[in-house]
Design brief:
Length: 362
Protein backbone atom coordinates (compact mmCIF):
# COMPACT_ATOMS: atom_id res chain seq x y z
CA UNK A 1 0.00 0.00 0.00
CA UNK A 2 1.44 3.40 -0.96
CA UNK A 3 1.81 6.36 1.40
CA UNK A 4 -1.21 8.18 -0.05
CA UNK A 5 -3.43 5.19 0.70
CA UNK A 6 -2.01 5.03 4.22
CA UNK A 7 -2.83 8.70 4.80
CA UNK A 8 -6.30 8.27 3.29
CA UNK A 9 -7.25 5.38 5.56
CA UNK A 10 -5.65 7.00 8.61
CA UNK A 11 -8.01 9.98 8.51
CA UNK A 12 -10.14 9.79 11.68
CA UNK A 13 -13.25 11.23 9.98
CA UNK A 14 -15.37 9.90 7.10
CA UNK A 15 -14.03 11.05 3.71
CA UNK A 16 -15.38 10.44 0.20
CA UNK A 17 -14.13 11.11 -3.31
CA UNK A 18 -17.00 11.94 -5.66
CA UNK A 19 -16.51 11.68 -9.42
CA UNK A 20 -17.87 13.97 -12.12
CA UNK A 21 -21.11 11.93 -12.26
CA UNK A 22 -21.79 12.38 -8.52
CA UNK A 23 -20.89 8.76 -7.83
CA UNK A 24 -18.60 7.58 -5.03
CA UNK A 25 -15.13 6.92 -6.45
CA UNK A 26 -13.49 6.09 -3.13
CA UNK A 27 -14.20 6.04 0.60
CA UNK A 28 -11.81 5.74 3.53
CA UNK A 29 -12.13 3.35 6.47
CA UNK A 30 -13.92 5.88 8.68
CA UNK A 31 -16.38 6.45 5.84
CA UNK A 32 -17.14 2.73 5.69
CA UNK A 33 -17.91 2.86 9.39
CA UNK A 34 -20.11 5.92 8.95
CA UNK A 35 -22.15 4.21 6.21
CA UNK A 36 -22.08 0.80 7.91
CA UNK A 37 -21.15 -0.54 4.48
CA UNK A 38 -18.02 -1.81 2.77
CA UNK A 39 -15.99 0.18 0.26
CA UNK A 40 -16.71 -2.36 -2.47
CA UNK A 41 -20.49 -2.10 -1.98
CA UNK A 42 -20.69 1.69 -2.34
CA UNK A 43 -18.12 2.56 -5.02
CA UNK A 44 -19.87 3.52 -8.26
CA UNK A 45 -23.17 4.32 -6.56
CA UNK A 46 -24.68 7.85 -6.54
CA UNK A 47 -23.41 9.64 -3.44
CA UNK A 48 -26.79 11.12 -2.49
CA UNK A 49 -28.31 7.62 -2.55
CA UNK A 50 -25.77 6.52 0.04
CA UNK A 51 -25.56 9.67 2.18
CA UNK A 52 -28.73 11.42 3.31
CA UNK A 53 -28.24 15.08 4.26
CA UNK A 54 -31.09 17.07 5.78
CA UNK A 55 -30.34 20.18 3.74
CA UNK A 56 -30.80 21.33 0.10
CA UNK A 57 -27.18 20.56 -0.76
CA UNK A 58 -27.16 19.45 -4.41
CA UNK A 59 -27.35 22.94 -5.98
CA UNK A 60 -24.59 24.34 -3.74
CA UNK A 61 -22.49 21.25 -4.46
CA UNK A 62 -22.79 21.73 -8.24
CA UNK A 63 -21.91 25.42 -7.87
CA UNK A 64 -18.78 24.57 -5.86
CA UNK A 65 -17.72 22.10 -8.56
CA UNK A 66 -18.30 24.50 -11.46
CA UNK A 67 -16.55 27.41 -9.70
CA UNK A 68 -13.75 25.30 -8.21
CA UNK A 69 -14.39 26.61 -4.71
CA UNK A 70 -14.79 24.84 -1.36
CA UNK A 71 -18.13 24.46 0.37
CA UNK A 72 -18.65 24.35 4.15
CA UNK A 73 -21.95 23.27 5.71
CA UNK A 74 -22.36 23.29 9.50
CA UNK A 75 -24.88 21.66 11.84
CA UNK A 76 -26.80 19.42 9.45
CA UNK A 77 -28.12 15.92 10.04
CA UNK A 78 -26.33 13.35 7.90
CA UNK A 79 -26.69 9.57 7.84
CA UNK A 80 -27.36 6.59 5.62
CA UNK A 81 -29.93 3.87 5.17
CA UNK A 82 -27.99 1.73 7.64
CA UNK A 83 -27.70 4.19 10.52
CA UNK A 84 -29.57 6.99 12.25
CA UNK A 85 -28.48 10.51 11.27
CA UNK A 86 -25.89 12.47 13.27
CA UNK A 87 -25.43 16.21 13.46
CA UNK A 88 -22.38 16.92 11.33
CA UNK A 89 -20.26 19.53 9.61
CA UNK A 90 -19.50 18.93 5.91
CA UNK A 91 -16.37 20.15 4.11
CA UNK A 92 -16.38 19.81 0.33
CA UNK A 93 -13.63 20.89 -2.07
CA UNK A 94 -12.40 20.19 -5.62
CA UNK A 95 -9.89 17.35 -5.85
CA UNK A 96 -6.67 18.81 -7.20
CA UNK A 97 -5.50 17.15 -10.41
CA UNK A 98 -8.86 15.48 -11.09
CA UNK A 99 -11.21 17.88 -12.92
CA UNK A 100 -14.84 17.39 -11.91
CA UNK A 101 -14.03 15.26 -8.88
CA UNK A 102 -14.72 16.47 -5.35
CA UNK A 103 -13.62 15.38 -1.89
CA UNK A 104 -16.14 15.48 0.94
CA UNK A 105 -15.24 15.19 4.62
CA UNK A 106 -17.94 14.60 7.23
CA UNK A 107 -17.22 15.58 10.84
CA UNK A 108 -19.86 14.19 13.22
CA UNK A 109 -20.24 16.18 16.42
CA UNK A 110 -20.13 12.82 18.21
CA UNK A 111 -16.42 12.61 17.38
CA UNK A 112 -15.63 15.84 19.20
CA UNK A 113 -17.50 14.63 22.25
CA UNK A 114 -15.34 11.52 22.42
CA UNK A 115 -12.36 13.58 23.62
CA UNK A 116 -13.93 14.59 26.93
CA UNK A 117 -16.82 12.23 27.60
CA UNK A 118 -14.75 9.63 29.45
CA UNK A 119 -13.57 12.07 32.10
CA UNK A 120 -17.01 13.67 32.34
CA UNK A 121 -18.67 10.30 32.86
CA UNK A 122 -16.20 9.28 35.55
CA UNK A 123 -16.60 12.58 37.38
CA UNK A 124 -20.40 12.41 37.28
CA UNK A 125 -20.34 8.77 38.38
CA UNK A 126 -18.04 9.52 41.32
CA UNK A 127 -20.35 12.32 42.49
CA UNK A 128 -23.37 10.04 42.16
CA UNK A 129 -21.60 7.24 44.05
CA UNK A 130 -20.86 9.58 46.95
CA UNK A 131 -24.49 10.68 47.05
CA UNK A 132 -25.65 7.07 46.79
CA UNK A 133 -23.58 5.93 49.76
CA UNK A 134 -24.76 8.87 51.86
CA UNK A 135 -28.41 8.28 50.99
CA UNK A 136 -28.22 4.57 51.72
CA UNK A 137 -26.59 5.14 55.11
CA UNK A 138 -28.90 7.95 56.20
CA UNK A 139 -32.21 6.51 55.01
CA UNK A 140 -32.11 2.73 55.45
CA UNK A 141 -31.85 2.77 59.26
CA UNK A 142 -34.84 5.12 59.84
CA UNK A 143 -36.84 3.11 57.30
CA UNK A 144 -36.29 -0.06 59.32
CA UNK A 145 -37.71 1.74 62.37
CA UNK A 146 -40.72 3.03 60.41
CA UNK A 147 -41.45 -0.46 59.05
CA UNK A 148 -41.18 -2.03 62.51
CA UNK A 149 -43.44 0.59 64.07
CA UNK A 150 -46.07 0.12 61.36
CA UNK A 151 -46.04 -3.64 61.88
CA UNK A 152 -46.52 -3.18 65.66
CA UNK A 153 -49.41 -0.77 65.07
CA UNK A 154 -51.09 -3.26 62.74
CA UNK A 155 -51.51 -5.69 65.64
CA UNK A 156 -53.81 -3.36 67.59
CA UNK A 157 -55.95 -1.53 65.04
CA UNK A 158 -59.16 -2.25 63.21
CA UNK A 159 -59.23 -4.02 59.89
CA UNK A 160 -60.38 -0.77 58.30
CA UNK A 161 -57.16 1.00 59.35
CA UNK A 162 -54.98 -2.02 58.57
CA UNK A 163 -54.82 -0.93 54.94
CA UNK A 164 -52.90 2.20 56.00
CA UNK A 165 -50.20 0.32 57.93
CA UNK A 166 -49.88 -2.18 55.08
CA UNK A 167 -49.30 0.76 52.75
CA UNK A 168 -46.56 2.13 55.04
CA UNK A 169 -44.80 -1.24 55.14
CA UNK A 170 -45.10 -1.79 51.38
CA UNK A 171 -43.80 1.66 50.49
CA UNK A 172 -40.94 1.41 52.99
CA UNK A 173 -39.86 -1.89 51.46
CA UNK A 174 -40.05 -0.34 47.98
CA UNK A 175 -37.73 2.46 49.08
CA UNK A 176 -35.32 -0.08 50.58
CA UNK A 177 -35.17 -1.88 47.21
CA UNK A 178 -34.45 1.44 45.50
CA UNK A 179 -31.63 2.12 47.96
CA UNK A 180 -30.21 -1.35 47.29
CA UNK A 181 -30.02 -0.42 43.60
CA UNK A 182 -28.25 2.79 44.56
CA UNK A 183 -25.79 0.81 46.69
CA UNK A 184 -25.13 -1.54 43.78
CA UNK A 185 -24.25 1.50 41.67
CA UNK A 186 -21.74 2.61 44.30
CA UNK A 187 -20.17 -0.76 45.04
CA UNK A 188 -19.08 -1.73 41.53
CA UNK A 189 -15.65 -3.36 41.66
CA UNK A 190 -12.80 -2.51 39.33
CA UNK A 191 -12.84 -4.66 36.18
CA UNK A 192 -10.89 -7.93 36.18
CA UNK A 193 -9.24 -7.44 32.79
CA UNK A 194 -8.69 -10.49 30.61
CA UNK A 195 -9.20 -11.57 26.97
CA UNK A 196 -12.93 -11.99 26.32
CA UNK A 197 -14.84 -13.51 23.41
CA UNK A 198 -17.49 -10.84 23.10
CA UNK A 199 -19.77 -13.19 21.13
CA UNK A 200 -19.90 -15.54 24.13
CA UNK A 201 -21.02 -12.60 26.28
CA UNK A 202 -23.66 -11.57 23.74
CA UNK A 203 -24.96 -15.13 23.49
CA UNK A 204 -25.26 -15.46 27.28
CA UNK A 205 -27.13 -12.15 27.42
CA UNK A 206 -29.41 -13.11 24.53
CA UNK A 207 -30.37 -16.46 26.08
CA UNK A 208 -30.96 -14.87 29.47
CA UNK A 209 -33.14 -12.14 27.95
CA UNK A 210 -35.28 -14.56 25.94
CA UNK A 211 -35.96 -16.61 29.07
CA UNK A 212 -37.00 -13.55 31.09
CA UNK A 213 -37.66 -9.89 30.38
CA UNK A 214 -37.20 -10.28 26.60
CA UNK A 215 -39.52 -13.25 26.10
CA UNK A 216 -41.70 -11.21 23.72
CA UNK A 217 -38.75 -9.94 21.68
CA UNK A 218 -37.08 -11.29 18.55
CA UNK A 219 -33.29 -11.04 18.90
CA UNK A 220 -31.26 -11.27 15.69
CA UNK A 221 -27.52 -12.04 15.66
CA UNK A 222 -25.42 -10.23 13.07
CA UNK A 223 -21.86 -11.10 14.08
CA UNK A 224 -18.48 -10.72 12.44
CA UNK A 225 -17.01 -14.19 13.09
CA UNK A 226 -13.46 -12.93 12.58
CA UNK A 227 -13.69 -10.41 15.44
CA UNK A 228 -10.65 -10.74 17.75
CA UNK A 229 -10.89 -11.01 21.53
CA UNK A 230 -11.87 -7.95 23.56
CA UNK A 231 -10.07 -6.89 26.75
CA UNK A 232 -12.20 -6.52 29.83
CA UNK A 233 -14.25 -8.11 32.58
CA UNK A 234 -16.72 -10.64 31.10
CA UNK A 235 -19.17 -10.32 34.00
CA UNK A 236 -19.26 -6.54 33.73
CA UNK A 237 -19.62 -6.75 29.93
CA UNK A 238 -22.58 -9.10 30.52
CA UNK A 239 -24.10 -6.58 32.94
CA UNK A 240 -23.82 -3.85 30.29
CA UNK A 241 -25.45 -5.90 27.52
CA UNK A 242 -28.23 -7.21 29.79
CA UNK A 243 -29.06 -3.67 30.86
CA UNK A 244 -29.27 -2.45 27.26
CA UNK A 245 -31.37 -5.45 26.21
CA UNK A 246 -33.71 -4.89 29.16
CA UNK A 247 -34.16 -1.22 28.25
CA UNK A 248 -34.97 -2.14 24.66
CA UNK A 249 -37.46 -4.80 25.78
CA UNK A 250 -39.20 -2.47 28.21
CA UNK A 251 -39.43 0.26 25.57
CA UNK A 252 -41.11 -2.15 23.15
CA UNK A 253 -43.83 -3.01 25.66
CA UNK A 254 -45.95 -6.18 25.75
CA UNK A 255 -46.40 -6.20 21.97
CA UNK A 256 -42.70 -7.04 21.60
CA UNK A 257 -40.30 -6.01 18.89
CA UNK A 258 -36.96 -6.80 17.28
CA UNK A 259 -33.46 -6.34 18.66
CA UNK A 260 -30.41 -6.76 16.43
CA UNK A 261 -27.02 -7.56 17.93
CA UNK A 262 -24.31 -6.49 15.50
CA UNK A 263 -20.52 -6.72 15.79
CA UNK A 264 -17.84 -5.46 13.42
CA UNK A 265 -14.23 -4.25 13.32
CA UNK A 266 -13.36 -0.59 12.73
CA UNK A 267 -9.59 -0.21 12.86
CA UNK A 268 -9.63 3.61 12.51
CA UNK A 269 -11.68 4.22 15.66
CA UNK A 270 -9.50 5.86 18.34
CA UNK A 271 -10.36 7.56 21.62
CA UNK A 272 -8.30 10.64 22.39
CA UNK A 273 -8.26 12.36 25.77
CA UNK A 274 -7.86 16.07 26.42
CA UNK A 275 -4.20 15.50 27.39
CA UNK A 276 -3.44 14.13 23.92
CA UNK A 277 -3.12 10.48 24.94
CA UNK A 278 -5.35 7.85 23.42
CA UNK A 279 -5.80 4.29 22.29
CA UNK A 280 -7.53 2.25 19.61
CA UNK A 281 -11.09 0.96 20.13
CA UNK A 282 -11.59 -1.24 17.06
CA UNK A 283 -14.21 -3.68 18.41
CA UNK A 284 -17.73 -2.40 17.76
CA UNK A 285 -20.96 -3.75 19.24
CA UNK A 286 -24.33 -2.31 18.27
CA UNK A 287 -27.62 -3.08 20.03
CA UNK A 288 -30.35 -1.91 17.67
CA UNK A 289 -34.07 -1.93 18.45
CA UNK A 290 -37.18 -0.84 16.56
CA UNK A 291 -38.91 0.69 19.57
CA UNK A 292 -40.31 4.22 19.99
CA UNK A 293 -36.91 5.80 20.59
CA UNK A 294 -35.46 7.79 23.45
CA UNK A 295 -37.47 10.75 24.79
CA UNK A 296 -36.29 13.82 22.93
CA UNK A 297 -35.88 15.94 26.06
CA UNK A 298 -33.27 13.60 27.63
CA UNK A 299 -31.41 12.21 24.59
CA UNK A 300 -28.32 14.26 25.32
CA UNK A 301 -28.26 13.34 29.03
CA UNK A 302 -29.20 9.66 29.12
CA UNK A 303 -25.83 8.56 30.55
CA UNK A 304 -25.99 11.04 33.42
CA UNK A 305 -26.95 9.68 36.86
CA UNK A 306 -30.62 10.07 37.90
CA UNK A 307 -31.82 10.86 34.36
CA UNK A 308 -34.55 8.45 33.28
CA UNK A 309 -37.26 8.26 30.66
CA UNK A 310 -39.20 5.62 32.60
CA UNK A 311 -42.10 6.53 34.84
CA UNK A 312 -40.60 4.78 37.88
CA UNK A 313 -36.99 4.63 36.71
CA UNK A 314 -34.04 5.35 39.00
CA UNK A 315 -31.87 6.86 36.27
CA UNK A 316 -28.95 4.67 37.33
CA UNK A 317 -29.05 1.90 34.72
CA UNK A 318 -27.43 3.76 31.82
CA UNK A 319 -25.19 5.69 34.19
CA UNK A 320 -23.89 2.35 35.47
CA UNK A 321 -23.45 1.09 31.89
CA UNK A 322 -21.51 4.24 31.02
CA UNK A 323 -19.34 3.92 34.11
CA UNK A 324 -18.45 0.29 33.30
CA UNK A 325 -17.54 1.15 29.71
CA UNK A 326 -15.52 4.15 30.86
CA UNK A 327 -13.67 1.99 33.43
CA UNK A 328 -12.67 -0.24 30.51
CA UNK A 329 -11.34 2.82 28.62
CA UNK A 330 -14.10 2.22 26.08
CA UNK A 331 -16.76 4.40 24.49
CA UNK A 332 -20.55 4.23 24.40
CA UNK A 333 -22.87 6.34 22.29
CA UNK A 334 -26.55 6.36 21.38
CA UNK A 335 -28.40 7.39 18.22
CA UNK A 336 -32.17 7.38 18.41
CA UNK A 337 -35.11 8.21 16.18
CA UNK A 338 -38.61 6.70 16.43
CA UNK A 339 -38.37 3.14 15.12
CA UNK A 340 -34.60 2.82 15.42
CA UNK A 341 -32.39 3.21 18.49
CA UNK A 342 -28.73 2.20 18.36
CA UNK A 343 -26.46 1.85 21.38
CA UNK A 344 -22.89 1.45 20.18
CA UNK A 345 -20.07 0.08 22.34
CA UNK A 346 -16.47 0.55 21.22
CA UNK A 347 -13.97 -1.63 23.08
CA UNK A 348 -10.27 -2.37 23.23
CA UNK A 349 -8.72 -5.39 21.59
CA UNK A 350 -6.94 -7.83 23.91
CA UNK A 351 -3.15 -7.33 23.86
CA UNK A 352 -1.33 -10.07 21.99
CA UNK A 353 0.63 -11.19 25.05
CA UNK A 354 -2.60 -11.52 27.09
CA UNK A 355 -4.20 -13.59 24.33
CA UNK A 356 -1.18 -15.89 24.10
CA UNK A 357 -1.14 -16.30 27.88
CA UNK A 358 -4.80 -17.34 27.79
CA UNK A 359 -4.09 -19.93 25.11
CA UNK A 360 -1.21 -21.38 27.12
CA UNK A 361 -3.33 -21.67 30.29
CA UNK A 362 -6.23 -23.46 28.58
Amino acid sequence: MNSNANIWNSLPVPAFIIDENDCIADVNSAGEGFLNASRRSVIGHPVWDQIAVDAPLEEAFLRARSQGTPLFVNDVDAGSGNRAPLQCALQIAPLVGHPGSMIMIISPRELAGRMTLGNTVKSAAQSAIGMAEMLAHEIKNPLAGITGAAQLLSMNISSQDLELTDLIVAESRRIVKLLEQVEQFGNLQKPDLRPVNIHDVLDRARRSALLGFGADMTIIEDYDPSLPLAYGDPDQFLQVVLNLLKNASEAAGPQGGTIRLRTYFEHSFRLRRSDGSGHSLPLQIEIIDDGPGLPEDIRGDIFDPFVSGKENGTGLGLALVSKIVSDHDGWISADSVPGRTVFKLSLRRAPRDATEHKKEST
